[in-house]
């Protein structure tokens, strides 16, 4: 069994830092909640790398919110529920679609500059959206623009202290309540940070897989530490693979935004044939899981490692203006988006599951909140609708801060919490080697296509790494590997339990969706194992 803490400690022996609100992570969720919370509370924002390094930074497509006259929250709701394949929380979706437009206006007030056409917000359309409602910035650099604007605000606020290069090891709890966090400082020393509320905004889990659009920091830290602390974790089997990541020798798996297909790009196999008509009536703009599996099917049929994305029928001027970041990145590898077909293949992109929260972002542990990709609010269901993630972070970030303002003050006494497992130093192979092996296991046995046999194999391979939790850990890469191992086991166990195919979860041995048996969530808790919960999607 995975222990409650990764390290042995005694709070009475650790240095203590006091604050009101602890925010972990510096993507859109962390920055936005820090800004709002700072109006009434002292905030400590902890990030394991730097203020600008997060999944948000790499988000290209945009942020989904109803701003056009021909659109409505009802349409946005319908699209979200359809993509979520029967597992969305209708109440959570209602919150998103109705409060999203105000959240976008708040981002603009805080300095985010979205693209405009003739003085109006420029809107695009992405897969499974019925209307143009995606706001974007600098063409295809929306995430970076939001992070740029919000980080400037954070740096100006005297009520927000930022700790770069600090690693949060674990949440400290007592009797079902979060007291604060154990943090390792850049010099290796450890400290207990105590707060009235803790908000996990630590992002996703892309590094579970060998090929991902996520940065190196996306190691499922928040989900893993919340699981160890006893929080409910939901829907971990649903990992979204982005259909179109650059697949070229020597190049990283760089995201080629869905907006490229939204603007008319088509997919071709290596024979040059369009193929999406064989898989879905929405063609290239079908839901992401459909497009990703169609690409894999074509790759297998043509014995290729990629398919092509073709937008060469558009003018070079339009392509360069609309997708400057993608254009420049491809050019670094001798690929001209305006005249060449671009080789692409699927890569791990987004974690639909996470820490189960209510409509105010509260987890099942008192005073512990989750926001952004690390959370499971119920908005995304089995398959996230494109560009809903950034708006979710803003909407629920605002709700979390409102909830924190109503929390009663807690005593400042340091409780006598300690943990002793009697850990020993083990002769472990290099963490980079262990991480690569884990990623290969997840790609091979628990990726886009799964079966009972492959998942059992994954469980067996991952189980061999469990002695790690009995070892003396002291380095960031060791903590990260422990978090990846924790999250990968949750993904595999959930995928093995769900004997159907739905959204981003596809079982070759159970290829059909089965609403009568499986329109429900799988909940993981450290003490109770797996339980099921009926979905309230209507």
From TrEMBL:
Keyword set, alphabetical order: FAD, Flavoprotein, Oxidoreductase, Pyridine nucleotide biosynthesis
Residues covered by the FAD-dependent oxidoreductase 2 FAD-binding domain: 20-390
Compartment(s) where it occurs, according to its Swiss-Prot or TrEMBL record: Cytoplasm
Keyword Iron: no
Listed cofactors: FAD
SUPFAM superfamilies linked to this entry: FAD/NAD(P)-binding domain (SSF51905), Succinate dehydrogenase/fumarate reductase flavoprotein C-terminal domain (SSF46977), Succinate dehydrogenase/fumarate reductase flavoprotein, catalytic domain (SSF56425)
Pathway in which this enzyme or protein is active: Cofactor biosynthesis; NAD(+) biosynthesis; iminoaspartate from L-aspartate (oxidase route): step 1/1
One MF annotation (Gene Ontology) recorded for this entry: L-aspartate oxidase activity
EC number: 1.4.3.16
Domain Fumarate reductase/succinate dehydrogenase flavoprotein-like C-terminal: 436-527
Residues annotated as the enzyme's active site: 288
Catalytic reactions on record: L-aspartate + O2 = iminosuccinate + H2O2
Classification via Pfam families: FAD_binding_2, Succ_DH_flav_C
GO cellular component: cytoplasm
Keyword Oxidoreductase among record annotations: yes
GO biological process: one example: 'de novo' NAD+ biosynthetic process from L-aspartate
Function: Catalyzes the oxidation of L-aspartate to iminoaspartate.
Family membership noted in the UniProt record: Belongs to the FAD-dependent oxidoreductase 2 family. NadB subfamily.
Name of the protein this chain belongs to: L-aspartate oxidase
Organism of derivation: Paenibacillus campinasensis
Organism lineage string: Bacteria, Bacillati, Bacillota, Bacilli, Bacillales
Gene behind the chain: nadB
């Amino acid at each position: 069994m995975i222990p409650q803490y990764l390290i042995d400690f005694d709070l009475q022996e650790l240095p203590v830092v006091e604050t009101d609100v602890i925010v972990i992570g510096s993507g859109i969720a962390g920055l936005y909640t820090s800004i709002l919370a700072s109006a009434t509370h002292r905030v400590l924002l902890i990030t394991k790398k730097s203020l600008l390094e997060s999944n948000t930074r790499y988000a290209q497509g945009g942020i989904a919110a109803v701003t056009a006259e021909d659109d409505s929250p009802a349409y946005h709701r319908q699209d979200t529920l359809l993509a979520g394949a029967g597992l969305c929380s209708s109440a959570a979706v209602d919150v998103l679609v109705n409060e999203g437009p105000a959240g976008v206006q708040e981002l603009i007030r805080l300095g985010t500059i979205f693209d405009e056409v003739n003085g109006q917000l420029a809107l695009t359309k992405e897969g499974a959206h019925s209307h143009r409602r995606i706001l974007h910035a600098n063409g295809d650099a929306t995430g970076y623009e939001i992070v740029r604007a919000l980080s400037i605000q954070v740096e100006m606020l005297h009520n927000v202290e930022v700790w770069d290069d600090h690693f949060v090891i674990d949440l400290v709890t007592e009797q079902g309540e979060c007291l604060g966090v154990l943090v390792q400082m850049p010099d290796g020393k450890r400290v207990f940070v105590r707060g009235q509320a803790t908000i996990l905004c630590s992002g996703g889990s892309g590094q579970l897989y060998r090929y991902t659009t996520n940065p190196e920091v996306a190691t499922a830290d928040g989900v893993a530490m919340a699981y160890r602390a006893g929080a409910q974790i939901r829907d971990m089997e649903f990992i979204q693979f982005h259909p179109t990541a650059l697949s070229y020798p020597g190049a990283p798996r760089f995201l080629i935004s869905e907006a490229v297909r939204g603007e008319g790009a088509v997919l071709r196999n290596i024979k040059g044939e369009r193929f999406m008509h064989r898989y879905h009536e929405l063609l290239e703009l079908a839901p992401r899981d459909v497009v990703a599996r169609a690409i894999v099917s074509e790759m297998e049929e043509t014995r290729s490692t990629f398919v092509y994305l073709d937008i060469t029928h558009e003018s070079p001027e339009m392509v360069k203006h609309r997708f400057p970041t993608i254009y420049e990145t491809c050019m670094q590898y001798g690929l001209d988006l305006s005249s060449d077909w671009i080789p692409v293949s699927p890569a791990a992109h987004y974690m639909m599951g996470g820490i189960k929260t209510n409509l105010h972002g509260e987890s099942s542990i008192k005073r512990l909140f989750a926001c952004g990709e690390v959370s499971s609010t119920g908005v995304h269901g089995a398959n996230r609708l494109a560009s809903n993630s950034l708006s979710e972070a803003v909407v629920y970030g605002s709700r979390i801060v409102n909830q924190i303002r109503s929390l009663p003050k807690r005593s400042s006494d340091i409780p006598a919490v300690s943990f002793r497992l009697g850990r020993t130093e083990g002769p472990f192979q290099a963490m980079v080697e262990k991480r690569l092996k884990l990623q290969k296991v997840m790609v091979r046995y628990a990726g886009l296509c799964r079966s009972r046999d492959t998942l059992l194999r994954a469980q067996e391979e991952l189980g061999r790494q469990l002695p790690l939790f009995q070892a003396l850990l002291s380095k960031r890469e060791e903590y990260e590997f422990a978090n990846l191992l924790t999250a990968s086991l949750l993904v595999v166990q959930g995928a093995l339990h769900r004997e159907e195919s739905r959204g981003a979860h596809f079982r070759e041995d159970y290829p059909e969706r089965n609403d009568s048996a499986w329109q429900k969530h799988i909940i993981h808790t450290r003490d109770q194992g797996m339980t099921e919960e009926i979905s309230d999607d209507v």
